[in-house]
């Protein structure tokens, strides 16, 4: 099978592996949140927000190679363009998610220090804090997704191997 044939077979296989993992992870978070790091962290953030709001209510304050080697036989400009565009999309998506995480964390930082009378409920702070965390986690996963795309430049076999290793790692 030639390079383009492998690309057409192994790239969707690699993406399917990542999609299956993330669907499994979402289901696991929804059904058994204490068995995932994301779920445990959400619970801990909820406790932290509660502690910060109770503490601040009590004392009135809170604490603060060469080009030839690079393409490895895939000489079509379209093939290389698709690979580079895929990397770019992953990075752009990761950046977008991380910017949103910073936005939500910034809101929590401000809201947690508002005097008790003007402050929204701890449940609202918890929701905002967890949204920031979910965006941060999504940004990291988008960044992780981009790494196998880099290896795809060197061939589809290395990309699939990297995706399998990444799912085991995650």
UniProtKB/TrEMBL annotation:
**Keyword Transmembrane helix on this protein?**
yes
For this UniProt record, the keywords arranged alphabetically read as follows: Membrane, Transmembrane, Transmembrane helix
Span-the-membrane segments of this chain are 6-26, 84-105, 134-154
Q: Which InterPro entries match?
A: DUF599 (IPR006747)
Q: One Pfam match, by short name?
A: DUF599
In Swiss-Prot or TrEMBL terms, this protein is called Uncharacterized protein
């Amino acid at each position: 099978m030639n390079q383009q044939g492998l690309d057409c077979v192994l790239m969707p296989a690699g993406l399917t592996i990542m999609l299956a993992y993330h669907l499994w992870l979402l289901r696991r978070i929804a059904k058994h949140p204490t068995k995932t790091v994301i779920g445990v962290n959400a619970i801990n953030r909820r406790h932290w927000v509660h502690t910060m709001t109770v503490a601040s209510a009590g004392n009135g304050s809170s604490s603060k190679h060469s080009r030839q080697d690079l393409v490895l036989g895939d000489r079509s400009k379209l093939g290389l363009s698709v690979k580079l565009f895929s990397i770019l999309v992953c990075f752009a998506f990761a950046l977008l998610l991380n910017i949103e995480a910073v936005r939500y964390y910034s809101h929590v930082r401000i809201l947690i220090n508002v005097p008790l009378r003007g402050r929204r409920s701890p449940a609202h702070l918890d929701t905002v804090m967890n949204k920031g965390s979910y965006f941060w986690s999504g940004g990291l996963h988008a960044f992780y997704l981009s790494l196998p795309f880099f290896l795809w430049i060197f061939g589809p076999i290395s990309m699939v191997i990297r995706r399998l290793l990444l799912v085991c790692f995650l």
